[in-house]
Amino acid sequence: MGDRAADDRRRLRPLLRAPPGPADRPVRGDRCGPAHGRGTRGRRHRPRVGRSQRRVRDASGRRAQPVRPARVDSPRQRAAVPVRSARGDRAGARRLSDATTEALLITRDGVMLEVNQAMSRLFGYAEGDLVGRSVLDLVAPESLPFVQSLFAKGVEGPFEALALDAAGEVFPVEVHSRTIPYSDGLDAGVSSIRDLRERRAMEERLARQALYDNVTGLPNRVLLVDRVRHALSSARVGEDSPIAIILLDLDRFKVVNESLGHSAGDALLLAVGQRLQACLRPGDTVARFGGDEFAILLDEVGGPDGANVVAERIEGELAAPVSIGGHEVFVSARMGIVVGQPGRAEPDDLLRDAEIALYRAKAGSMVRRALFEPSMSSVAAERLDLESDLRRAIDRAELRVFYQPLVDLATDRIAGVEALVRWQHPTRGLIAPMSFIPLAEETGLILPIGRWVLETACRQAHEWQLAFPSDPPLTISVNLSARQFAQADLVAQVAAILAETDLPPSSLELEITESVVMDESEPGIRALRALRELGCRLALDDFGTGYSSLSYLKSLPLDTIKIDRSFVAGLAGDDANLPIVQAVIGLAHGLGIDVTAEGIETADQLGWLRDLVCDRGQGYYYARPLPAPELARLLGPDARPIGRPATTRVAFTTRAGRRRDRIAG
Asked: Which H or E run includes 329?
């Protein structure tokens, strides 16, 4: 396999480093490296004559003869011109050079004449050990031919090379040189040498950050795409060795991340990444794609069957719980799989097809993974159109709030209503929430949609309270998604909406699902308590369908639990459901929590729930979700008890004794 990281850096170097500027290229000009005693080659020596002929005048105002500097015609003559004190100048220059932290040396014909203290420290030699030696002794063997070629060609300017210190350590340096007149009157080369080790380390860190994920240490999307492109390269065309991409999305990661905290989420990602690596061969790649998505590149996989074998291995590896901060977190994943042949596919196309297959896997409740098929593309295009339309639905006022009555089972009177969102699409008609709410959750659109529903429902409830006063006042129930519940400013949002709509907090019941509170995280409990302190009622929706735990019934500040419709549907003929519902109602009442039954559709189901002393119920038996004007007709002072006609109610109550006997038995 060779050095995989080195191969990656070589292929991706154009992406990671900007093209060199003029300062990064060797240029002709002042000589760098050893200075030859022949003076400045190729240059005509002009006498340094002061050309300024300024007009000066004496004290009486008459023009005076200008003072001209002495005329010097050649380097040899310049060397013979008296100077203040060459020895004193050299001593002052030496003190100045020793004061700088930059390594400096003076050379002639490739031999070092002088070095400063920083130069000695950089290379680990005493000054006396360097003076008189060839500068090439300080060049590492790897760079020696390059440096010699620069000297031979007379190339001058900044360049980079590898240096060799007294201990034999090789390190990168940057050399800047120019030619100066030396104290003996002849030209010499002065060079500054800059240690590049820190810069190289920084570049390596930046390169790693550009190609690897900071949380898991795995390759990121950029590096994965490059490896996919390399695996599909034309050099491999004709080989019977297809590749496969598995795109993996973790279930419920947002709940863990938002309930236990981001550090717990990072720990979960790291653990998952390590488990995925354990499932792969050395030549395969696992990358973090961002968020809770991972991508796996299987090289020479052999076809769809080979990819499915790896997917099964991954499912088994993820089955064991992950221990994070004292919590055992169970994680599962959905996978989209695509297989591609070198020379017949592009990386972007394969990744798009893997996304489409992943969406198919996430759309089904039982299917955990899906292999891409060409027919899936049309479904993905339809989903893309739906997402685009959904983004504009709020601005276009296409969303509607319908209301379903919550009925007091003891009186058949409406005690409250639940707000349910619908989408009135201009061409598709009325779209049920299950057709677009999951998409809204995935894209984050649930946040603006949820806020709009909450505000609309609270305003409508206040209008009904004014129009149809009752004691106690009518309540409104609104669902909060996991992403809404995780907002840091959720309590402030709810308080602002209540103040804006003039709805009393006690008239608002917020419904959350079990997945939101199953981890019993401190931030989640604090949010619930803050909402309760605000005066809102709290309901646990769909109780019994998820990771039900009796412990959080006593630890969470709940007012209501809602029994899922699947248990209510089996009451009439399934003996197994009866003790479950009976136990839930008894436990809730023992903790001072009300119980609402969802999905009541028959008189027999209603009879069972009444005998079990269930507090409230909702379902098609009473009414379907209705637009506000239609529901208002059920709230008037002359409105009869909601439900079936009285004759029907009398008919099913004759079986009440038999039901009570079964409950008691």
From this structure: strand 327-329
* Whether 417 and 513 share a structural domain: yes
The three-state secondary structure class of 364 is coil
pLDDT above 60 (res 592)? yes
The token pair at 401 is 């709030």
Please tell me the predicted confidence (pLDDT) of residue 664.
52
Residues in the chain: 665
Apex 440 CA angle, 437 and 445, nearest 5: 140
Is 31 part of any domain? Answer: yes
For residue range 255-307, list pLDDT tens digits in order: 787 778 888 889 999 999 999 999 999 889 999 988 899 999 998 888 899 99
Q: What's 171's domain CATH number?
A: 3.30.450.20
pLDDT of 43 over the 60 cut: no
Residues 185 and 220 in one domain: no
Q: List, in sequence order, the alpha helices (H) in 20-126.
A: 75-80, 86-99, 117-123
CATH number, domain at 655? 3.20.20.450
Residue 494 and residue 634 in one domain: yes
Nearest-Å Rg of the Cα atoms of the chain is 40
Say how far apart CA 290 and CA 650 lie, in whole Å: 60
pLDDT tier, 237 (very low <50, low <70, confident <90, very high otherwise) = low
pTM of the predicted model as reported, rounded to 2 decimal places: 0.54
Q: How far apart are CA 4 and CA 662, in angstroms?
A: 70
CA angle centred on 483, ends 478 and 485, rounded to 5°: 55
Same domain, 251 and 331: yes
253 torsion bin: left (phi>0), alpha (psi -120 to 50), beta (else)? alpha
In this structure, what are the phi and psi dihedrals at residue 455, rounded to the nearest 5 degrees? -65, -45
Contact 328, 519 (CB under 8 A): no
Q: What are phi and psi of 188, to 5 degrees?
A: -145, 165
Between CA 580 and CA 570 the distance in angstroms is 11
The last residue of one of the domains, among 324, 359, 374, is: 374
Average pLDDT over residues 578-604: 92
Contact between 621 and 601 under an 8 Å Cβ cutoff? The reply is yes
> Do β-strands 111-115 and 103-108 pair in parallel, antiparallel, or remain unpaired?
antiparallel
Distance CA 101, CA 657 (A): 99
Q: What is the pLDDT at residue 652?
A: 43
